[in-house]
Amino acid sequence: xxSRKRVADHGEVFTPRWxxxxxxxxxxxxxxxxxxxxxxxxxxxxNFLVPVLERKLVAVQARHxxxxxxxxxxxLFSLMCIYGIxxxxxxxxxxxxxxKGTFARYLKLDDxxxxxxxxxxxTRAGDAEWLRAASTVVEANIIQGDALAMTTxxxxxxxxxxxxxxxxxxxxxxxxxxxxxxxxxxASEGLFAHFEEHEIFTPIRSYPVMTVKELAV
Length: 217
Description:
Elements: H1 4-10, H2 17-25, H3 28-31, E1 38-40, H4 49-64, H5 68-80, E2 82-86, H6 89-107, H7 121-141, E3 142-146, E4 151-152, E5 159-167, E6 170-177, H8 178-187, H9 197-200, E7 205-206, H10 212-215
Parallel strand pairs: 1-2, 2-3
Antiparallel strand pairs: 3-4, 5-6, 6-7
Helix pairs in contact: 4-5, 4-6, 5-6, 6-7
């Protein structure tokens, strides 16, 4: 609890880690899938999302740890599969930093200045590029807004990117409005049960295939 006023004004209460872990254990299989997508509509500083990312990264290590190339790309894909909405700006910013920090610690990324003699310039530049790519992802995936109204802090409709990893270091991004996604979920008994994809699940924007370097721009 950050302050009693925030509790009174916004109902802000943070779930303790032990309870988060118990809840995530109920869906253990999903938390250990690299490509499973999680949306926390009141994400706070990431009390649920950070442990989900940690579990995904354990799966990345188990499946792709022998290849530095695959490990890095699937770690970023794990981050891409985590989404949050948060009403308060400071919480949203803290959530982004906590997710990015978890990602960086797993890959042992370091963006310290060139005065650090322990790491050569090429390695530092590469690490900084991965950190910038992670920043691009969390800025897109963690939204400051109202989950009930499905609007951003600016009053615009919330939109989330659907990221896909195509292999060989290539990612695909398509953006969808949250209200469209929820309409599809409520309208169908299962995936494509009543609607063809073009009828209700049309992206508002599609991007060219991109690499980490292009994400980091």
